[in-house]
Amino acid sequence: MFYKTPPTRSDHAARTVSTSHKWMRKYFRGRGGFSLIEVMVVVVIIALLAGVVGFSVAGYTDRGRKTKAKADLATIASAIKSYYGNYGRYPDPSEGLEVLVPEYLEQTVKDPWGGTYQYELPGTDGPFDVICFGADGREGGDGIEADFTNWTQDDQP
Fold first, then answer.
1. Which domains can be identified in the chain, with CATH numbers?
2. 10 Å Cβ neighbour count for 149?
3. 0.90 cut: is pTM over it?
4. Cβ-contact 144, 70 below 8 angstroms
5. Rounded distance between C-alpha atoms, residue 148 and residue 154, angstroms
6. Mean pLDDT throughout 41-58?
C-alpha cells in the first residue's frame, strides 16, 4: 500500500492562491477600468469640497489674526503702563516700542500680517495709542483691513 504524503504548507498556500486568482479572474472578466466621465465626476466633487473647505478656513484664519493682534495690543499697552509706573513718564515716540525690550517685552512684536505696531503719544483715545493698521498695513479700511487700537472695544470683530 502506498500512502500519499500529507500536503506541505507551501502546497496548500499555492492551491489557495491559484483558487483565489481563478475567482478574481472570473469576477472581473469583461470589466474595464473607470470611464472618463466617472473620473471627471469624482474630480469635480473633490474640487467643490476643497473650495468649500478653503473658503471657510480663510475666515477662521483672518479672525485668528485679528484676535492675536488685539492680544498683542493689550500686552504692549500693559508694558507701556508698567514703564510709566517705573519711570513716571510714557516712552517718547522717538524711542518707540523698542525701549520696552527686554525689560517689559521679550522682543519687538510684529503684527500678524508682518507690519509694525504704531505708537503715538499723546493718543487720540487715551494718554497713548498703540495702533495696528490691519491686513493692508495702511490707515483706514473695512473688515479685515480695518485699523484698531489698544482702546478698541472687545466686542468689535
1. 34-149 (3.30.700.10)
2. 20
3. no
4. no
5. 10
6. 90
